[in-house]
Amino acid sequence: MTSSPPVKAFDWSNLGLRVISATILIPMVVLAIWTGGWLFLLMTAVAVALLANEWGQLCASKASARMSIVIAAAVLAPTFYAHWGYFTDAAMALVVGTLVAALAAVGLKEKPGDSAYGVFYIGLPVLALTWLRTTPQGLTWTIALFAVTWSADIVAYAVGNVVKGPKLWPSFSPNKTWSGFVGGLVGAVVAAVAVAVLSKLKISIGAAAAVGLVGGLATMTGDLWESMLKRRYGVKDSGDLIPGHGGLLDRVDGLMFAAVIVAGARLIAFIGFPF
Fold first, then answer.
1. CA distances from residue 4 to 1, 7, 8, 228 in whole angstroms, order as listed
2. CA-to-CA distance for 136 and 273, rounded, in angstroms?
3. Where are the chain's structural domains?
4. Residue 200: per-residue pLDDT
5. pTM here?
6. 195-201 long-range CB contacts below 8 Å, 24 or more apart?
7. Taking the C-alpha atoms of 252, 257, 263 and 266 in order, what is their torsion angle to the nearest 10 degrees?
8. Contact between residue 176 and residue 168 where contact means Cβ atoms under 8 Å apart
9. What is the pLDDT of residue 25?
10. How many angstroms separate the Cα of 130 from the Cα of each of 9, 82, 85, 87?
């Protein structure tokens, strides 16, 4: 009989790196969200440039630097439109940007589908996040988004490493467990309800819990999706920008999915649909 593999010990050194990175990055992000305006735009633009660079490194083996510049430009244009409040123009610019990236990839002898997808993959969450911040109670909704995402990530990581148990999807992400998945969802729901109560967000407790649940599910889905993408490109991490986390894509993969879902929930509340 083949013995089971030994249980992996909790990686305290990696946890320490994560804590240090979070201690530095979280206050910077919160300040930009709280302040809004040009500081929020600056944070978004820097993130776009870094994400585009990582995506170019992943999908373009022959001309990664040039492809990264094209992808960054294709996302930054709609980002600025959205910041100025021209969201229809921003959506149109994003569509044009995907086409431009595909054509550029053909000219550079890279894969046009991968490059075009990179523009959409990065650009759609950026537009959703920018729109969310500009709506009434936008600051609170944006804080709720980050609270849900961070709580889902942190609780899933802690519970998964301590409780362990059956793997969630071992073929793509061997370290994720069902216990971490459930723990992450609970953390996301608690975070959403806490923000709603403390900030007097104009939705019911049940609605806040629902936002936390779908936001947590989106966070987990984004994390798994990124794992599948990295498996496809044959890399462990998207980069090494953040100690303990890897690249920026590794850190915000769940946020990118959650931003779209939470913005959708905000849109439902915004148009007055019973929530």
1. 9, 9, 12, 25
2. 16
3. 15-134, 137-275
4. 83
5. 0.88
6. 195/140, 195/143, 195/144, 195/147, 196/144, 199/140, 199/143, 199/144, 201/137, 201/140, 201/141, 201/144
7. -110
8. yes
9. 78
10. 40, 7, 9, 9
